[in-house]
Amino acid sequence: MAKIKHNNFLDTVNEVFTDAKNEGVLHLYAEGEDFSGRTIGIKNRKLFHFGTTGYLGLEQDNRLKEAAIDAIRKYGTQFPLSKSYISNPLYRELEEKVTEMYGNPVIITKNSTLGHMGVIPSAVKDQDAIILDHQVHWSVQSAAKVLKNRSVPIDMIRHNDLNMLEDKIKSYSDKRKKIWYMADGIYSMYGDLAPVADLKTLSQKYPQLNFYYDDVHGMSWIGKNGTGYVLSVLKELSENILLFGTLSKTFGASGAVLVCSNKKMYHELKTFGGPLTFSAQLEPASVAAATASAKIHLSPEIYTLQQELRERIEYFNELLQQTELPLIDHNISPVFYIGTGMPKTGYNFVNRLMKEGFYVNLGIFPAVPVKNTGVRITISRHNQKEEIKGLVEAMEYHFPKALEDTHTNPSRVFQAFKLDSKLTTRPLKKEIVNSDLIIRTEDSILNIEKGLWNGLLGRNGVFDWDGLKFLEQTFSDNPLKEHNWKFKYLIIFDKQKTPILATFLTNSLWKDDMLANVGASQTIEADRQSDPYYLTSKVLSIGSLFTEGDHLYLDIEHPSKKEALGIMLQTLENWEQTLKAKMIVLRDFSEEIDLHSYFQGQGFVRIKMPESCGIDLKETGDIEAYISQLSSRNRRHLRKEILGTEPLLKIAILNSCSKDQLIQIHELYSNVHQNNLGLNTFSFPVKLFENMSLHPNWEFITIYPLTDPDKMIGVMLCFKNIHRTYVPAYVGIDYSYLNEFHIYRQLLYQTIKRAIEINSLHIAMGLTAAFEKRKLGASVHEKYAYIQTADNYTLELMGVMESS
After folding, report:
1. pLDDT in tens, 454-513
2. Where is the Aminotransferase class I/classII large domain (predicted)?
3. CATH of 438-611+786-801 among 3.30.750.24, 3.40.630.30, 3.20.20.80, 3.40.50.150
């Protein structure tokens, strides 16, 4: 497989958000001349509001409103001066009250994002290391990545995985002064909790361990003086902890607060903290409202408010327990998440609930993996028991309807979230939804009729019937597990036994950094010196790491096309589970086949692959006639760099090779493989080249310098397809001769020349190097892949490692 361009993360997020916006569940505008918190106006209707982060409802408290109004009258809408010079007169009381709440020194920041950007680069020194929980808030991750520029190592663990965390701590303990673990107290999507008590125990074992907690979703509704979830567990703040809380969300005002018990560090952060120094200060209205809220937090009233919310949370939990809805995490927080699995199911479910009179949030990528889309529900003091009960009844009724509308079922949702079904008397079904179509699956191409397969997919590359037989033999019974692939075949027919869809897949071991940048792969390869399978995963992919081309046959005019696609994806999900794969990859799609919305709705993220290149030889005579069709500029390039050096070379076509020749071919291939960390894959087994030498459909275009006619300096490994497609599959180069003889360009030219000689109709030139191939007359087409992962850990880890 040729190098895939690194995905533009923002492009992917834009596509997902645009899809959700078009479905009417994102980027909405609230309506109405007032807002109570209990209801919200959307699309000319008043809906019960189950999407707020103002869990205690303090943003509607008259004391905060009056304080804000009075501050505006006295001090204006803003205090336009850096806080480093002078603070608004209202700041002193706010800082005093919040300090009293926490019993420790505090720093008030404009918001948590700017706070993280100011604190993290100041608190973490060049001698330290950072370990991120992979679900810690984006604002923390973004601020931490800045430290890559100072060579501070940034690492990541799977969510709440303390065993993994301890392994990381051990790896840094002899190299770094402090090891910072950064996590949320309450995670904003699923509402699950950080294991704060266990983390404290771990810090007692490893004194280097420090903590950076973002507890903005744990604020106010729990803890002494409403100081949050983390402090409710710890009781007191030790000097190895930095704690972020919020003055917005549940606190009811605006801004954020850093709490630091280490007086030396507090002084450093207070004196100069990047954005803390240069950013504008909070507006007078926000300062006054926050002070009014702090007074409530310091009074016994805060515990009454907490109890009122707790009763609503417990009531909602009790009602959910009586249903079969897939609640993703059972806990005490006011945040709940009902899984829908696929985005299109989430869109349908949210729209159904809005029509019933309930507003809820949609959880989508990148906050959650695409296939872990769901409905995020928040409970607040605004919500009354009658509408809480009404919401549960509406969800219980509409959830199966949404599944039915989007052609899925509960078992797929439970499987996507790795949940155990509560329906013990009705075990989860793995079978495909009812269909009149005929589904045929096989584990070997030997079980499929050659004529049938070649008629569907035989013309596309090294995966006609003979090519797949060759690959099955090559990638089996090898000593290394990365060289053993499982092959799967799927053909779907209509009732008249007319094929609608056909494809083949491989389940094989991929390096997780296969698509990462070179710097990230270099770092990971250093760790693979001691653990060759570090950061590797089983992947179920259409096609294989060896093949390129249109791996999916689909009759786009057939009325059952969408039904066949749905069956294919459900089959892949079942195979993914039984084969223990971590990712599904659908490869090599062009934009001409409009499947983008369908795949995205099914939980796949699109990435752009390199351009695919091909040459049509149907109207070509001989090589001279072919050359004459090139532009004058490209003919000059050909004469100078290719035809000009051709007389200095010996070109030989080998159908079978001696042992010495096979050794040279393997070495040349290895040169190219090792030189391409941009596409970091496992190498192919030596057996591959031996099998090629024995196979009638494979041949080798080889190049030798006339000055040393036994020294092979370039090779193109070519497959002759049943439909007269010539496939230059892989290349090998001696880089010390690359510029002298323009080896790669010479091999491309010799490939075209050879294809014409044997009367090929088409050359599948493969991916990458489109600029070079276009010079020799290749047409170029954009290609895309669609990826579906079980979680975002690898994606986010690569993002951290690539941010230097």
Report:
1. 999 988 789 999 999 999 999 999 999 999 999 999 999 999 999 999 999 999 999 988
2. 49-393
3. 3.40.630.30
